[in-house]
Amino acid sequence: MEAGASIGWLAPPTWLSLVILAVTFIIIYTYWVYDNRRKFNLPGPTPLPVLGNTLEVISKGLIGFDAAMVQKYGKLVAINGSGRIGDILVADLDILKEIMVRRASSFTDRNEDPAPMFEPFNQSLTFSKGEHWKQMRSTITPAFSSGKLKQMEALILACADRLVQNLKKKAQGDEDIDIKRMFDPYTMDVIASTSFGLQLDAQGNPNHPFIKNAKELMEPSLHSPVILILREDISIFDP
């Protein structure tokens, strides 16, 4: 009786065994079914169960992560996000031309991860699908014609001139230069002048309402629309 009691005391409760079994099944299932390396027969980083390669993307940043993957695995890399649909990182120019020019009509929709279900982000170019996406693209494309880009050149050069003058002032004053802090307002000036027709001078007037609202939109907080999009888009299974 004492031996049996000891064994019974060491054995985990039934509910705990079921939970462990279910969690183990989910981890194995997501790892095996959604591993793009096996699905597409392509090289790539080993994904973590459920999280995929998300932690590595966060630690290196999107650009740093992509550059590291291309350097390590080549011009075609299988990437696993935290959702069930992963990505193929393409760095081959011939393949990119095939996808984006010759066969662009075959790649109208993005992957099948659920788009945000709240307005107005579910109608944006990033998440639109099918005919709605085609209509939006045909509307936006003329804005990037060679003629329109030439018209933007003077506006961009004016913003660049202000940036150069600000850099010269920093250099003459023997100050340390935070390149990101210098280029952020320059980028904002270019976007505001070419897209909205506004002459903000974000480099000299960082407290302009347009600039403050844009920064608030992109600030990484739990209530930021950007975070809401990411949170809505991250899921293991589609609903």
Written description of the protein model:
The protein has 239 residues and is mostly helical. A hairpin with a 7-residue loop joins strand 1 and strand 2 (87-90). The relative contact order is 0.08. Helix 4 (54-60) packs across helix 5 and helix 8 runs antiparallel to helix 9. The protein has 2 domains: 2-112, no CATH class; 145-206, no CATH class. The longest helix is centred in the middle third of the chain and has 27 residues, at 146-172. Strands 1-2 form a two-stranded antiparallel sheet. Mean pLDDT is 75; it is low at 1-7 and 225-239. The chain starts with a helix and ends in a 6-residue tail after the last helix. It has helices spanning 2-10, 14-33, 36-40, 54-60, 62-73, 93-102, 130-140, 146-172, 179-195, 209-218, 225-233, and strands at 76-79, 87-90. The radius of gyration is 25 Å and the shape is extended. Helix content is 57%, strand content 3%. It comes from Lingula anatina (Brachiopod).
Please provide a brief summary of the model.
The chain has 11 helices and 2 strands, in the order αααααββαααααα. It has about 240 residues and is mainly alpha-helical. The protein has 2 domains: about 1-110, no CATH class; about 145-205, no CATH class.
Q: What topology emerges from the helices and strands here?
A:
Blueprint: H1 2-10, H2 14-33, H3 36-40, H4 54-60, H5 62-73, E1 76-79, E2 87-90, H6 93-102, H7 130-140, H8 146-172, H9 179-195, H10 209-218, H11 225-233
Antiparallel strand pairs: 1-2
Helix pairs in contact: 4-5, 8-9
